[in-house]
Amino acid sequence: MYSVYFLPTAINACLHSENTGDCSNSALYIHGGHDIPNNRVNPNGTNPTKTVQYAVIYFKYGYNSTRIPTYKVKFDIGSKEWSCTCPDFILRRLALQTCCKHIQGCIDIRQVDLLYPNLPVGIRFTPNYIKILRNHIIRQ
Prior knowledge:
The structure is a single chain. The chain is α+β, with helices and mostly antiparallel strands. The chain has helices spanning 87-96, 101-115, 127-136; strands at residues 13-14, 33-34, 52-57, 70-76, 81-84, 137-139. The N and C termini lie far apart (38 Å).
C-alpha cells in the first residue's frame, strides 16, 4: 500500500485575503497554496492535555470578505479525539477515524507553537504555511 506522501498533492489551503475562489490561482499568490493532509489517523501528533476548541475559517473555497463560514474543531480530553463540524469530517472522516484538513491544521499550529523554533524539517512548515494557519485558525 502506498503512503499518502506518494499520492499527487492537491492545493486545499491558501491565505484568505489572496483567495479569488477555490485557491485555483495559488501559483500567483504571494503566500502560495498548500496541501494540508486530510487522511491521517485521528488522533495524531502531540495531543493537548485538556479539551481545546478552535474556530477554523474556510481554507479554500470561495473568497468571502466576511471570513465565514467557520468550522468548529475540538479536541475532547475524555475521548482523546478530535472532531470538526465540516461536511468532510461528518460524512467521511468520522467513520474512517481520520482527520480532515481543519483538524490537521489545528494539530499543525499546535506543533508550531510547541516546537518553534525547532520545527520539523519539511515543506509543510514553511513561513507561508504557518502564516496561513495563523490567519485561519483561532483558539477559542
